[in-house]
């Protein structure tokens, strides 16, 4: 079949497609230990909450209303107004419903935004998206309409006690040239669990404004919801910042609801793109979120249920890792948020791609590190020494996965 250039680019077996295939294979393999994907945990209290919420929304008619109607291209109005009020009240941001648009998942919002600010410009030049700190989210890597649309900068690596380390933005080598149309950072970061500091964020904000380009902050795991953040961090928004949020990590990935908070001009652009690409974003997730805000539950569930759940899981998982793998074998990025641990096997005699293959054969799925360096030249050894695992499954499953990981790491050292 002869596909167009667009078709050829978007039907490629991209990193994300391979990962999704593996996750699916894993799901079909009985007994597989899935430490690879980004699905949020099934937190019993959240499941009960959503169950009760759907039932009462069905009774009061708001669920039926959401199922049976199109919303406008900006997204469901009741959520836009309720969320703007919540952000004004909780964070003091000067936002109204004109500063918010919805999309079918924040993943589709990135596709819109990357191609709105980067790609082929009116004058024929190629504008790029700059990731100021790689490793970065794998889902960005293939979301450009043009080839070579992403550049990123290697991090500074600070060594911490207890076999931990933390990435920092290397401002000395961060170059915002004429060809950069957008700066983008996830905070907390998937895959590392890093939360760039307030100072780093303010410096990026300043750099973006100096260069007259927006700063996109991907807040899929951050504050005020779902609130999966364990370090001190102040949320930041101003009219030059595009903040992307999501209902997914609250426990609702199936509703595919992403939220963009930005200047009115950007919101109007997103609405028009929504209109062309999907008529309107889906209304089910927004109806649920609006009801959660109306009942005053959204913030308290994030603070009292979701954050403590992941905090407990990450503490347990690190303790388990350390029972099987000492710091000489495996360093751990300081877990500051999100639902992943980023492991650094500094002296491993094989690449983590090979380790991944060996683990997969034994029914354990984790993701090798090299996928997470979009826009960086592929030969940086560090990228092949890291691995991402989530800490979503129950503790006993995680322990079985870690035991197999430790065996495979030892085997690789023995065979070297
Ligand atoms: N941003 C980050 C950092 C993520 O990890 C994910 C999903 O795993 C997303 C965005 C996309 O989320 P969604 O499209 O479900 O809103």
From TrEMBL:
It holds the Pfam family Aminotran_1_2. GO terms for cellular component: cytosol. This is Valine-pyruvate aminotransferase. Gene3D superfamilies: Type I PLP-dependent aspartate aminotransferase-like (Major domain) (3.40.640.10). One of its GO terms (molecular function) is pyridoxal phosphate binding. Its cofactor is pyridoxal 5'-phosphate. It comes from Sodalis ligni. Residues 69-391 form the Aminotransferase class I/classII large domain. InterPro entries: Aminotransferase_I/II_large, Class-I_PLP-dep_aminotransf, PyrdxlP-dep_Trfase, PyrdxlP-dep_Trfase_major. Keywords: Aminotransferase, Pyridoxal phosphate, Pyruvate, Transferase. One of its GO terms (biological process) is alpha-amino acid metabolic process. CDD domains: AAT_like. The lineage of its organism: Bacteria, Pseudomonadati, Pseudomonadota, Gammaproteobacteria, Enterobacterales. It comes from the Bacteria.
């Amino acid at each position: 079949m002869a596909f167009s250039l667009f078709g050829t680019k978007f039907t490629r077996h991209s990193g994300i497609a391979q990962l999704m295939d593996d996750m699916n294979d894993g799901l079909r393999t009985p007994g597989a230990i899935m430490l690879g994907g980004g699905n949020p945990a099934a937190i019993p209290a959240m499941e009960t909450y959503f169950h009760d919420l759907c039932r009462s929304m069905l009774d009061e008619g708001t669920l039926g209303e959401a199922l049976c109607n199109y919303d406008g291209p900006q997204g469901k109005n009741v959520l836009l107004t309720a969320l703007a009020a919540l952000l004004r009240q909780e964070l003091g941001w000067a936002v109204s419903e004109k500063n918010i648009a919805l999309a079918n998942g924040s993943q589709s919002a990135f596709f819109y935004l990357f191609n709105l600010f980067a790609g082929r410009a009116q004058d024929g030049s190629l504008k790029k998206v700059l990731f100021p700190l790689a490793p970065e989210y794998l889902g960005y890597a293939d979301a450009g309409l043009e080839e070579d649309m992403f550049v990123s900068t290697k991090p500074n690596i600070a060594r911490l006690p207890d076999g931990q380390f933390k990435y920092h933005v290397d401002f000395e080598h961060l170059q915002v040239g004429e060809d950069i149309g957008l700066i983008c950072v996830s905070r907390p970061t998937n895959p590392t669990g890093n939360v760039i500091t307030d100072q780093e964020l303010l410096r990026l904000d300043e750099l973006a404004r100096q260069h007259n380009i927006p700063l996109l902050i991907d807040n899929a795991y951050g504050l005020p919801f779902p609130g999966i953040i364990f370090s001190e961090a102040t949320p930041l928004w101003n009219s030059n910042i595009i903040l992307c949020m999501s209902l997914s990590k609250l426990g609702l990935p199936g509703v595919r609801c992403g939220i963009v908070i930005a200047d009115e001009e950007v919101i109007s652009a997103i609405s028009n793109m929504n209109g062309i690409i999907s008529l309107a974003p889906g209304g089910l997730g927004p109806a649920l979120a609006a009801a959660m805000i109306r009942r005053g539950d959204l913030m308290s569930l994030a603070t009292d249920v979701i954050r403590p759940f992941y905090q407990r899981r990450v503490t347990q998982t690190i303790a388990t890792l350390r029972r099987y793998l000492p710091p000489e074998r495996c360093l751990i990025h300081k877990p500051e948020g999100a639902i992943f641990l980023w492991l650094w096997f500094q002296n491993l005699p094989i690449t983590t791609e090979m380790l991944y293959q060996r683990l997969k054969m034994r029914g354990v799925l984790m993701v090798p590190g090299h996928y997470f360096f979009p826009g960086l030249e592929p030969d940086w050894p560090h990228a092949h020494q890291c691995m991402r695992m989530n800490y979503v499954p129950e503790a006993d499953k995680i322990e079985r996965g870690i035991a197999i990981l430790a065996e495979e790491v030892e085997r690789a050292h023995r065979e070297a």
